[in-house]
Amino acid sequence: MFFVASKVFWLLAQPLGIVFLLMLAGLIALLAGRRRLAVAGLVLALLVHGLVSFTSLGFLLIQPLEARFGVPAEPPEQVGAIVMLGGATLARVSTARQVAELNAAGDRLVTTLWLARRYPDAPIVLSGGSGLLSGDTESEATTAERLLVAHGIAPERLRLEGESRNTDENAALTRDLLAGVDGPVVLVTSAFHMPRSVGLFEAQGIPVIPWPTDYRSSGREGFGIDIANPVHNLDVASIAIKEWIGLLAYHWTGRTGELLPSQASNSPAGTSSR
After folding, report:
1. Which domains does the chain have, with CATH numbers?
2. Is 94 helix (H, G, I), strand (E, B) or coil?
């Protein structure tokens, strides 16, 4: 129920959804003869669209998330397991063509492959089902398995969790796959997604070493007009807003102990921003 509610809510709460609703409200007001309300709705729609598409607002929102955790300053000599969260592949294309088609978060798989070779004895947990409300697609874990095996990773090292539909379920369903693991657990996901992921894994009693990847900002952007790539600006803003909403929702519903997990609350291994 939480999964469906969150998907429907985000459909309406994302910037494009808000712009659409404001324009729709403006049109209805215009047809009803409420000209001032119509103008107000259209002006608000224009303002929201302008802020997320033609300014650097999204980069400002995503920077604190990406800066929260960094890659380990001194990587451990050995690890007990490597966990990669889904979200790096295109489900429909990968399923239909039986390939591993990556999306903008494909760095998650690249980083996992690099870690798999750095720690050749560590089992690799691929956590990810389908985040789609409809459609018959294979799990993201299956798609990731295809890519890793094609790049020389032994199938027996891979443990697949293909039922989760969101980060909360990633953590809950991964817990059993980590039973008997001896040593620290490395968690791989996008940098902006790491705070929420660490909080949820800690809530399941799984201390992790964050290994963030897939950065969307340089960490040095200031606020200003940015017309070079409005589509990219909109994408970054949407990701950042969704992540902040997710942090609030999971904290308010008691799924995480802290609104924004701190560096000190994660594993004892040192980390550093990059």
Report:
1. 73-215 (3.40.50.620)
2. helix
For residue 84, the cross-strand partners are 126, 188
pLDDT band at 135 (very low <50, low <70, confident <90, very high): low
Tokens of residue 37, six digits: 């309300």
Report CA torsion sign: 132, 247, 15, 26: positive
Tokens 């939480």 — which residue? Answer: 2
The DSSP code for 225 is: B
Q: How far apart (Å, rounded) are the C-alpha atoms in residues 255 and 247?
A: 10
pTM: 0.90
Q: Which residues of 179-210 are buried (b: 16+ CB within 10 A; e: fewer)?
A: eebeebbbbbbbbbbbbbbbbbbbbeebebbb
What is the three-class DSSP state of 187?
strand
The phi and psi torsions of 168 (rounded to 5 degrees) equal -60, -45
Strand order in the sheet with 124-127: 158-161, 124-127, 81-85, 185-190, 208-213
Burial status of residue 222 (CB atoms within 10 A of its CB: 0-12, 13-18, 19 or more): exposed
| Confidence at 3, pLDDT banded by 50, 70, 90 | low
pLDDT over threshold 60, residue 273: no
- Cite the DSSP H helix spans in the chain: 2-13, 15-31, 35-53, 57-67, 91-97, 107-118, 140-150, 167-174, 194-203, 230-252
